[in-house]
Amino acid sequence: MEQEQQGPPERASIWARKNLNQVLAVIRIHIITASYGVTVGWPAPIIPLLRSPETPLPSGPVTVDEASWIGSTLCIGGTIGTILFAIIHTYFGKKIALLLTSVPHIILWTLILVGDNVWYIYGARFCSGLTGGGVVSVVPLYIADIADKKIRGTLGSLTIIFINIGLVFIYAAGNYLPYDLIPKIMLVSPVAFIVLVSFLPETPYCLLKKGRLLEAERSLMFYRNISDQQYQTAEFTTEFDELKNFVHTQSTQSRICWADFTTPEAKRGLFIGVFVMALNQFSGIFAILTYAGTILQMSGTGIDPNVALVLVAILNICGNLTSFAIIDRAGRKIMLLLSATGVGLALAVLGAHSYLLTIGYDLQGAEWLPVLALALTLFLGAIGITNIPFFIVPEVMPPKLRSIGSTISGTLLCMFAFVTVKLYPIMMVNIHIYGTVWISSGVCAIAVVIIIFLIPETKGKNLNVQSDSKK
């Protein structure tokens, strides 16, 4: 009754007191996420420069095939990075794994700064993928460990928001700042990340796994913004007891074996994990982000591609913010369904414009349509396809397989990304933009059917209760 009489200011104050530390912690770790976003979007403004006579490389302009390798080498590093950082966080904890993601990030910007041929860029993109593998495999599990279940989806949505903050920066800066100034600026971010994340405690789950009970309690108190044991609430005590029981149950379980993957729950979880990661990539959104500058140039838009890139990236963030605001109220399934439907329709429109332009129709007056279709693709993708996969996987996997399931899904994500990013520029030359994006539109159409009939709602699911996974 007392809670019902509280007005919005009082409820907001209570929310802030309880959740402030976990929100600030997530923002700190997303320094590396935003930096990774810069590397994801780097090819969009830079590849057209590298292919032009004004290329900053002494070796001369890069070819279409070299450009496709610049885009896709990131995904090779991502595949290795996902497995590598999964091993690191399993044996050394999530905090150590997070801190180590900064190492390849420092190397990549150093290679771009000193490199004088395309092989340096390949190496830099590979290192970028290593960091991305760490972001994919560690960050969602870190958030799942520290987040209150009521805001887990909201905090999970921040991952893609920060990636897109990096995209906006590079889309804007990449066209106007000197080529060698960008790496000098970006070398600041991993250093700031190391300093700020070093002060965060390890997650309660990782500490309990190591038998450090007192430190685990203090860690959970920190993330629930409880300064002293005398301020512990019944809700906190219940949560900590559930976490201890969960970790104890896991520790008494037998080692993971093939039989664990053959249960109906495991099969369903793995299917959903593979499906959402495949949709994330074969919808074409990551490839479009990588080659947005080239797509806008080939689409015959009358708008300056440099300006259009920034507008598209800003609308992408608007989609992320929309998801951030409503994901824990609307639910995962409905957001994923709206996203897949919208992206499929927007790509169909982009393909139709490209097709009509290719066969000779006069589309004067409709030069804005490709920009609008591209912006809608990224906006609608951002409300579901591009962010929900990263936190739905821990929610649908059985507790025993949650970590390895996230690793499998993240590894497949990078493999799928390699295929799309490597093939997209080649397909755009051979079957034109319309053929390329219509394939992605078809993928979204198939995904809509799968989402309706096979994807469950996981909003508010308690990840620390073993029985939840059996319901």
Notable features of this structure?
single chain, 471 residues, mainly alpha, Growth Hormone, Chain: A, 21 helices, globular, transmembrane, transport
Structure commentary:
Keywords: Cell membrane, Membrane, Sugar transport, Transmembrane, Transmembrane helix, Transport. GO terms for molecular function: sugar transmembrane transporter activity. The protein folds into 2 domains: 16-200, MFS general substrate transporter like domains (Growth Hormone, Chain: A, Up-down Bundle), CATH 1.20.1250.20; 262-465, Up-down Bundle (Growth Hormone, Chain: A). The two termini are 31 Å apart. It has helices at 8-41, 43-50, 64-92, 94-100, 102-114, 118-146, 152-173, 181-186, 188-197, 204-209, 213-223, 234-252, 264-282, 285-290, 292-298, 305-330, 332-358, 369-382, 388-396, 402-430, 432-454. It is globular and about 70 Å long. The chain is mainly alpha-helical and 471 residues long. The model is unreliable at 467-471 (pLDDT under 50).
Distance between the termini: 31 Å
| CATH A-level architecture of the largest domain | Up-down Bundle
CATH class of the largest domain: Mainly Alpha
| Percent strand | under 5%
Radius of gyration: 23 Å
Task: Spell the H/E element sequence.
Answer: HHHHHHHHHHHHHHHHHHHHH
- Would you tell me the structural class of the helices and strands? mainly alpha
Number of helices: 21
Q: Percent range for helical residues?
A: over 70%
- Look at the structure and give the mean pLDDT: 87
Shape: globular
Low-confidence parts lasting 5 or more residues at pLDDT below 50? 467-471
Number of strands: 0
- The overall number of domains is 2
Q: What is the CATH homologous superfamily assignment of the largest domain? A: MFS general substrate transporter like domains
CATH fold naming of the largest domain:
Growth Hormone, Chain: A
